[in-house]
# Entry
Amino acid sequence: MKHLKKTDLEIYKLIQEEEKRQQNTLQMIPSENTASKAVEEAMGSVFGNKYGEGYPEKRYYQGNKVIDKLESMVIERAKKVYGVPAANVQALSGSPANFAVYTALLSPGDTLMGLSLASGGHLTHGAAFNASSRYFRAVNYDTDKNGMIDYEEVRKIAKKEKPKIIIASTTAYARILDWKKFAEIAEEVGAYLMADISHISGLIVGEVYPSPVDYAHVITTTTHKSLRGPRAALILSTEKGLKKDPDLAKKIDKAIIPGIQGGPHFNNIAAIGVALKEASTAKYKKYAQQVIANAKTLAQELQKYDFKLVTGGTDSHLLLVDLRNKGLMGNTVAEALDAVGIVLNRNGVPQDPNPPFFPSGIRMGTPGITSRKLEEKEMKLIAKWIDEVTKAVAETKELLKVTAEEEKKKSVRKNIIEKTKKLKAIKKEVLALCKKFPLPTEY
# Structure
């Protein structure tokens, strides 16, 4: 980055600082991963200079010979990797991809139905403060007291509310979705079934999580999570979707442009293509298998330390932990773990008595640490550190006589963490593991 260093030393230093942070911490937020250098090079390529509204052979600008080749190739790769007849690769990220589907298939005021935010759904699946509920009538289904989806309850709500789209997704849901049951419910009420596979996309490609291709009408996914690609998204139309509506793919294309976007980011489209090629290898399937193996081992080890896992475990890459038996908020544990170099996020849990900004749980995942080649042995070590940090912070909180209400103050949590001396030794151990397993450059 010699040119950047010469032109803008401040930005250069921030990039160096962030690279150091990523190298020296364990990346366990389920929605984050590490892209290969090949993907990064595509993202930083001259394709970022080109503007090209429209689609291959149908642009509003000139000079499109190369980008038409690029987009056509990436579309074909997406179709092959996911086993679908049509793909749109222009969505800038997951939220615009979801909104494009709504724009294509709904009119303002029509009803959509998705998993509630509190039960592990996404903002764009009908959260009260999201555009998905501002322009459309959004209804939600919830998980039961054990954190599991009750498909009979989903059916009852669907029959009552008559949604035009039912969204099946996993943002903080650790179990395998029953695509067939969702499809049956959608069929009963005449709805489209939309599968948002953003979190599990790479696991599906790696054949360790069931694919919704035979059941959903349309599929959306980001490309930067378990797929290890750039910050972008795909919208996939299935055979079933085209059978229900032969113009489905065309409607989605029109919803992207001129509907909600202008010119695509061709550098990211190039990077999607690279990620899809990487995901088509035997190495990638092995990676996906290890992601699941690591998650299951981590879950088992945490349970040995009396951590309460929502749903009692995991079938995927993520774990949702209810901390109420530990006497700490999710904020405190997440911030303390961040202080030692274990990066995950606070998260609400089903039937959480606490407000969203001060939830009772934490969420973690294994895609990022598996990309660094960590395996079951290291999962046991990480579980031990999580337990040690949680216990140490709980002891300090008790010693300082901090109340639950006081714990909501960031300054109070910071003081708890600073006064927990055991964290320094754990941080050294985490750093040593990071040095042993550096960030990958290729896959």
Q: What stands out?
A: Residues 41-279 form a domain with the Aspartate Aminotransferase; domain 2 fold (CATH 3.40.640.10). The two ends are 23 Å apart (CA to CA).
